[in-house]
What does this fold into?
Amino acid sequence: MKNLVIVSFPSKPDTLDKLKESMKIALPDTRAFDGCISVSTFIEESTNTIHLIEDWESLEHQSKYLNWRIETGLLNDLDPLLDGGAASVRIKLCGAEHIDI
It folds into this structure.
């Protein structure tokens, strides 16, 4: 991986299926965005949380992507599906792997 980013979306228990459908619609654009190398999806069933494991050419690419998503309203669209609303989305910018450790 070049630059690891982990994004977590905690769903309300009764909206997980709707959140999955929203992700199916949104993720092709994410994967096609400039600088995106890959996006893998995992669901933590015990907490109804969807985790995206993303690989980006650079954290700057991911930042441009996030700004685009905010500007185009995706987080507003997901807000009613998320336990805690859009403010509950967690983004961990891990960056490049440290192979010397």
Notes: The chain has one domain: 4-95.
